[in-house]
Amino acid sequence: MNAPDRTALNRLIQYLKPHIGLIIGSLLAMAIVAGAETSIPALMKPLLDRGFTGQLNNKLWQVPVFLVGLAVVRSLAQFLSNYLLTRVINAVLLKLREQMFQTLLHAKTAFFQKNSASNLINAVVFEVNNVLTIMGGMLINLVRDSLTVVGLMGYLIYLNWRLTLVVLVILPIIAFVMSKINRRLRSLNREQQSLTSELAYIVEESSAGYKIVKVHGAEQYEMRRFMEKAERLRQFALKSAVAGGLNQPITQLIASMALSIVLVIALLQSSTEGTTVGGFAAFITAMMLVISPLKHLADINQPLQRGLTAAEMIFALIDEPVEEEDSRKQDMKPLQKAKGGIRFEDVGFAYEQEVGRQDALRGINLAIKPGEVVAFVGPSGGGKSTLVNLLPRFYAPTSGHILLDDIPMEELILSDVRRQIAFVSQDVILFNDSIAANVAYGAVGQDGIDRGRVIEALEAANLSALMKELPEGIDTLIGDNGNRLSGGQRQRLAIARAIYKDAPILILDEATSALDSESERQVQDALERLMVGRTTLVIAHRLSTIEHASRIVVLEHGQIVESGSHEDLIKRDGLYANLHRIQFSNA
């Protein structure tokens, strides 16, 4: 076993330690199962030697009773060991899933850009079950079958040590075969895991974009993509099954050869050393009984490799760096309620990308007063969304500093920074919950929701009519990402969520893009009332919505090229004026 495998196993063992009592109980029950297995051939010897002599032996009638009793004890012990171990496994499985999801919630933004949702779902929901396989199946087989093998081998040595030597020859041969197959299995399992994630991603894309698929008649294209990956997955699954399946037939072949040799030697011994029928039958019975657990031990290899591969993925996810370590919070400053003053000092930012590509932001210097409404406009790709994404610290500047109320943001506790910001994106994200839970998102439980404020926020976002239409009102479930609502209603619900939060800083990223003219006018009025006393950053492509902003900042190629009021920028006849002319001439 290589170093990464040992590390993964050692980490899994750490998760078992809190449940040591249940594990000991399960091990004791497994020992009883192993002892019962060993007792069966021991009962066969007196039954055959003294039970078929032509005379009735009253004591031998106890043997069948003992056999039934052993079967009952073995069954109960086996049930108990499986039950106790299942309790341990599910407790550890719950803990692993908790830690994985905790990491997902606090992982850096870059992590989600590198990993598709299907990969993460596969890891948290499915791959972790392979760890259950390694912890459950392997432990049961390894412990119970090892104890059975030890017990039966001890009895074989006691009966006839010469014949036992022949049986012992098969053990190193089986170990050699397993070592040869092990490397092949590991490689196949990694590739299978990767292909499974890719297949899940195709399903995720096709399901999410079903409208585009249907409109473009791309069913055949998507089917071909799916089947190509599914076929490759099938091929690797077969290769893995072939490699793993070689263990059992090879083990059986070796055992059969050993059994043949044992039969020859036993026949020779019976004529020279007086081996009894009962002794020989007990030996053969014990030998046949030891083959089954040996086969199970040989078959551990395939689930072990699959489980270790899954464990690597799981621990890699658990070890993913989080946005802010708890230990850092002790050295950082709290912030209860911000005034809303924001200052960018020579801020630059570059995404993880190839060398030579232009930075997303360069030399941004901008001071925003508390309560000021600042709009960001410019050509697509100019850096508007990147700039506002630095405020909630989704990303950290690669150069320069951002200050909130004259405090560098990197010195503030992250959760406190985000509590000061309400964010409405052009990409609306809603949750499969009630309207109230979506508006008051982040409130813990129903008791944490202020229903009066929810209704006020919905009214301000022009959703009063919707509440009256729905039979369950604000308790109505809205479906996956709000699919039971229209596009405009979804957008307004996201605006209501920002209104409910009542944060001192408001970020609007094309927040009225999905509204019709009438709804836009009403929501724009509500937003303007909401902006009073709050620092507001607005990203807008429709320039008509930001003409009354305190200041308009024009970004191009990651730099501020113009700044001023709407009237000033029109008079300057620069990039803003040109964009304004293009939009209104098209209108």
Task: Summarize the structure in words.
This protein is α/β, with parallel strands linked by helices and 587 residues long. Among the domains are: 3-318, ABC transporter transmembrane region fold; 429-502, P-loop containing nucleotide triphosphate hydrolases (Rossmann fold). The chain contains 22 helices and ten strands. Strand 4 (399-404) and strand 5 form a beta hairpin. The mean pLDDT is 80.
As for the CATH topology of the domain at 3-318, it is: ABC transporter transmembrane region fold
Number of helices: 22
CATH class of the domain at 3-318: Mainly Alpha
Integer average pLDDT? 80
Uncertain runs: none
Named CATH architecture of the domain at 3-318: Up-down Bundle
